[in-house]
Design brief:
This protein has nine helices and nine strands. It has 272 residues and is of the alpha/beta class. It folds into two domains: 129 residues, 3-Layer(aba) Sandwich (Oxidized Rhodanese, domain 1), CATH 3.40.250.10; 90 residues, 3-Layer(aba) Sandwich (Oxidized Rhodanese, domain 1), CATH 3.40.250. The longest helix has 11 residues.
């Protein structure tokens, strides 16, 4: 799969789906993953083992609203929510926070530059945080997403905490050697151009009602979609039922979802 480009905020689950499928040495995950990059994911049982070992240089981040976090979170997890990673000064809602704002946020959460970050949520918001950190050059090998999210953790009856951990704030700054992955973000001009090219796909991954214009996400200027785009709802990349509900589908199944809509490895993908 060629490099994925990202528009705005909604398509991060699909971005991660494409990254998981990007050519490389294959290994098998859950369920029967066959992913090219399984190192992006961590299984709940693997995380539980790390917590029990009191592994150092690890920070777990819960990307849900405060009320949900306080109702029960993975032990040791700190919390952030969508507004924390949105640009507070941008006239449009939901835009990516600038690097300085992200660095201040990570410092407030007690993250050190050498830490391994484990991220989870109940929907797709953990993928958004992964995307932002990847864009700004945080080392990819130091980030993992919990497969199945908080529901995968709960399904195994693993312990939860209801009080935030006490963390020591840090002065977090990305390494001077950090290189932004600029291909993870595109401009409006890029999108307009992509719509005219057969080897490029502009992909809408919102819900069916949002795609049709029946509903609009809170903060949206108006409902509807960009004319001429392809639609694949983000949920189509996750398991719908059974013991692995909410986990990523296997690489083979994800490829089938994309291929059925003409999203193939020879094309650049622009997602919103």
């Amino acid at each position: 799969m060629r490099m994925v480009k990202k528009i705005w905020s909604f398509g991060l689950f699909i971005v991660l789906s494409l990254v998981l499928l990007t050519a490389g040495e294959q290994a098998y995950g859950v369920p029967n993953g066959g992913y090219a990059h399984p190192e992006i994911l961590i299984q709940p049982e693997e995380l539980k083992a790390l917590i029990e070992k009191k592994t150092s240089k690890m920070r777990i981040i819960d990307v849900r609203e405060s009320a949900q976090y306080l109702a029960g979170h993975i032990p040791g997890a700190v919390q952030l929510w969508r507004p924390d990673v949105e640009d507070k000064r941008h006239p449009l809602p939901g835009m990516m926070a600038p690097q300085a704002q992200i660095e201040e946020l990570l410092g407030r959460l007690g993250v050190d530059r050498e830490d391994n970050i484990i991220i989870y949520s109940d929907l797709y918001d953990h993928a958004r945080l992964w995307w932002i950190l990847a864009y700004y050059g945080f080392p990819l090998h130091q980030m993992k997403l919990v497969d199945g999210g908080i529901d995968g953790w709960k399904a195994k009856n693993y312990p939860l905490e209801t009080t935030p951990p006490i963390v020591k704030k840090t002065r977090f700054e990305l390494s001077e050697k950090a290189k932004r992955i600029t291909a993870l973000l595109c401009t409006l001009a890029d999108v307009k151009s992509a719509l005219k090219e057969s080897k490029k796909v502009v992909l809408d991954v919102r819900s069916k009602k949002e795609f049709s214009g029946e509903e609009a996400k809170k903060g949206a200027i108006k409902g509807g979609r960009i004319p001429g785009v392809t639609w694949i709802e983000w949920k189509e990349t996750t398991v719908e039922m059974g013991p692995y509900k909410g986990y990523w589908k296997s690489a083979q199944d994800i490829k089938k979802v994309f291929s059925a809509k003409g999203v193939t490895p020879d094309k650049d993908v622009y997602i919103y």
